[in-house]
């Protein structure tokens, strides 16, 4: 086995693009291909994402042939907990990669349009292009909507809490850090992880979400914890996504930020075309805004724009020796 990858990062969040070496990935669309990979090729996810080649917070994207007539490139997403239907920071990087590696024939200045097909749908991206060089990417997301506000949930160790639930390509619970007695700028990250992990375990047991278009999208991916600065005049706001018990997004989280923008718009705290800066724990940011209102099934929704930049970090060929006792990867929690 020889798996080829291009290594990138967006705001410090890793993106391991799987570009070659996989067996045939079957399926009539990207979502079916992701399910086929999960059922038949999950050892490749473990090989690439888990230790010793990866780590608990590694993210990846498997590039596949698109089936959407407008798509230039397609991908589904892998991480240490499993699979993702949308990953904003990875899509920002994929869009730049697509322009640089010939997936787009109509390259234009000052921006080149790239359509990225994800399991959740078609994401339209616009990549800065000048003098033969690419830069930042703007992505216009699939419809983002609020599923529930002030949803009560019992969390072991913290009692009964109220959370909001929103969809930005994946479902997340949204909560302010001060609910747990934490501060996003000063509290140790391990405390943030512990609180969000407890909430995630409660979500799995107590919450059932429903996507109006596809039941395969009807699951909560994790928790987005913020500094609670929801009002526009508060300036930059910090949020971080925690998936599973301990997986932490290094970027502000593209799909998580998308859902939060939809939530702020739903609450009347953002208007159309009003930009907001969303920071991660190390001070890097996404700029996001509502592009236009729309609908998704019975839900009022919004098309959200996020701007960030994917950077190249290298390339790799990953191999396996058959007598390696750790060839399937491992994690130490």
From TrEMBL:
The enzyme's E.C. designation: 4.2.1.77
Coiled-coil features, chain-numbered ranges: none
Family statement: Belongs to the proline racemase family.
Top EC class for this record: lyase
Protein name (database record): trans-L-3-hydroxyproline dehydratase
Record InterPro entries: Pro_racemase_fam
Superkingdom field: Eukaryota
SUPFAM superfamilies in the record: Diaminopimelate epimerase-like
Catalytic activity: trans-3-hydroxy-L-proline = 1-pyrroline-2-carboxylate + H2O
């Amino acid at each position: 086995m020889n798996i080829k990858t291009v290594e990138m990062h967006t705001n410090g969040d890793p993106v391991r693009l799987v570009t070659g070496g996989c067996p045939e990935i079957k399926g009539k669309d990207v979502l079916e291909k992701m399910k086929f990979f999960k059922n038949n090729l999950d050892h490749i996810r473990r090989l690439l994402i888990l230790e010793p080649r990866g780590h608990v917070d590694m993210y990846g994207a498997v590039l596949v042939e698109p089936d959407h007539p407008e798509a230039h490139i397609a991908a589904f997403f892998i991480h240490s907990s499993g699979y993702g239907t949308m990953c904003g920071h990875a899509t920002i990087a994929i869009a730049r990669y697509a322009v640089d590696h010939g997936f787009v024939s109509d390259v234009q200045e000052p921006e080149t349009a790239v359509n990225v097909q994800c399991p959740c749908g078609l994401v339209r991206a616009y990549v800065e292009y000048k003098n033969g060089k690419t830069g930042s990417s703007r992505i216009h997301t699939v419809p983002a909507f609020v599923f529930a506000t002030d949803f009560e949930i019992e969390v072991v160790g913290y009692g009964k809490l109220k959370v909001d639930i929103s969809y930005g390509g994946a479902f997340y619970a949204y909560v302010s850090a001060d609910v747990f007695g934490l501060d996003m700028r000063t509290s140790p990250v391990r405390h943030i992880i512990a609180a969000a992990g407890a909430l995630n375990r409660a979500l799995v047991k107590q919450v059932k979400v429903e996507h109006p278009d596809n039941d395969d999208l009807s699951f909560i991916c994790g928790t987005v914890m913020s500094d609670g600065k929801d009002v526009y005049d508060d300036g930059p706001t910090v949020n971080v996504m925690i998936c599973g018990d301990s997986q932490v997004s290094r970027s502000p989280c593209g799909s998580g930020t998308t859902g939060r923008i939809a939530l702020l718009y739903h609450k009347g705290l953002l208007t159309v075309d009003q930009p907001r800066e969303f920071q991660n724990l190390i001070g890097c940011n996404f700029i996001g805004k509502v592009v236009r209102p729309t609908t998704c099934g019975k839900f009022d929704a919004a098309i959200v724009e996020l701007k960030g930049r994917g950077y190249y970090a290298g390339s790799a060929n990953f191999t396996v020796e058959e007598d390696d006792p750790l060839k399937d990867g491992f994690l130490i929690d």
